[in-house]
Amino acid sequence: MGWLIFLIIAAAVVAGVFWARKHFRHEIERAKRINRANRNQ
Question: What are phi and psi of 10, to 5 degrees?
């Protein structure tokens, strides 16, 4: 039973990571650009 719960939680985490990557990729790229610009100054 513990394994089943673990697998469900692991699957939810993986799905959440993929969802977040798909939805927040533009935000992450924008943040990286801003950080790079700040470092170059």
Answer: -60, -45
Residue 14: CA count within 13 A, CB half-sphere: 6
| Per-residue CA distances from 35 to 21, 24, 27, 30 (Å) | 19, 16, 12, 9
CA dihedral (8, 10, 18, 25) positive or negative: positive
pLDDT string in tens for the chain (41-residue length): 899 999 999 999 999 999 888 888 888 889 899 999 988 87
Tokens (6 digits) for 30: 């924008």
Distances (CA, A) of 2 to 6, 15, 27, 40: 6, 20, 37, 50
